[in-house]
Amino acid sequence: MLRIAARVPDHGKLVPWRFIIIGGPERAVFTERLMEIWRSRNEAASEQMAEVERSKRDGAPLVVAVVSRAAEHPKIPVWEQQLSAGAVCLNLLHAAHAAGYAAQWLTGWPAYDAEVARLLGLKEGERIAGFIHIGTPAEAPVERDRPDLDSIVVRWVG
Fold this sequence. Notes:
Layout: H1 2-5, E1 17-22, H2 25-41, H3 47-57, E2 62-68, H4 78-98, E3 102-106, H5 114-119, E4 127-135, H6 149-152
Antiparallel strand pairs: 1-2, 2-4, 3-4
Helix pairs in contact: 2-3
């Protein structure tokens, strides 16, 4: 799946992203650390609120953190490098689904939190593009509404 995920447009072959695999016994440890950080920022939160937060982080046995490491370059804009990291996230979702797994691309507060970045060992300038949660589907996902193409597609006529 990672090989498929890594097969994305990458102007200049910079590989402006990397993977952090969070699975096995470390998966539960990671969730506990996230919950410690969350509780430190939400001291007045009820136990019910904490359980809702935990359920967002604790559903899948494997999480792949896709890290964007876009950097200034004389020929390749940072924006293109960031888009490449986003394409990695989407390819990983497609690869997991094609292999029969359920997968979800999440960000939320952990993707933007400095303490979580330190926990994961992110370097200066690195950012979380997404946490890809991968597991066995418990049930078929409910299809959500998609945009009406007529409202977002125009033909350029010069």
